[in-house]
Amino acid sequence: MSAEDAADIALLLRAGSLAAPMTIIEERTIGPSLGAENIAKGFNATLWGFVAVAIFMIVYYRLFGLFSAIGLTFNVFLLLALLSMLQATLTLPGIAAIALTIGMAIDANVLINERIREELRRGESPQSAIQIGFDRAWGTILDSNLTTLIVGIALLIFGTGPVRGFAVVHCLGILTSMFSAVVGVRAMVNLTHGGRKKLQGLSIGTVWKPKG
């Protein structure tokens, strides 16, 4: 091919007049709807996970499970309020961090409820079991959340992009979950049981007492 022929072909290519057959095998369009669909799916997964956890807690721990579910709801709203104050954009990593926060928050409530059950098995009165249960569960909750918070801070410092977004929501979620479990749930328990001096029992599910 001579230089003149190459120049003619280049001219035709630039003009878009080169006659060449084209068969379309597959065509895809990538736009904002794809991201919106993923966000919606992530939101629905987190929502149904929240509902499933709340139902399990209510069935297993009865009234105290209801307190835990209300505290979990308060935790999510508090976290979203903090993100709104920071003007953070909710992305897929953020939704994943919220889902993880739900698991961490309900774990704290499980520790509290099981500690109260343990005190009831030891023969403590209901009021005493509530007091001791919250006090002794606090140390375990603090240790477990503190170690997770350290990892979140490390991701925030050394991570980039979506990793940092996940870390921000994750760290805020740990703080709100501790507050909602220890302060929020305890406030509801004290409101309903604090003034009942002759409290005979607690609606906290089946308390298995050792035989003999």
Radius of gyration: 28 Å
The run of helices and strands is: HHHHH
Extract low-pLDDT stretches: none
Rounded to the nearest angstrom, the distance between the terminal CA atoms is 102 Å
Structural class: mainly alpha
Number of helices: 5
Helix content: over 70%
Query: In terms of quaternary structure, what is this?
Result: single chain
3D structure, described in words:
The protein has helices spanning 3-15, 32-85, 92-121, 126-158, 162-193. The protein has 212 residues and is mainly α. The longest helix is centred in the N-terminal third of the chain and has 54 residues, at 32-85. The radius of gyration is 28 Å and the shape is elongated. The model has no long low-confidence stretch (mean pLDDT 83).
Write the layout of secondary structure elements.
Blueprint: H1 3-15, H2 32-85, H3 92-121, H4 126-158, H5 162-193
Helix pairs in contact: 2-3, 2-5, 3-4, 3-5, 4-5
What descriptive keywords fit this protein?
212 residues; mainly alpha; Multidrug efflux transporter AcrB transmembrane fold; 5 helices; elongated
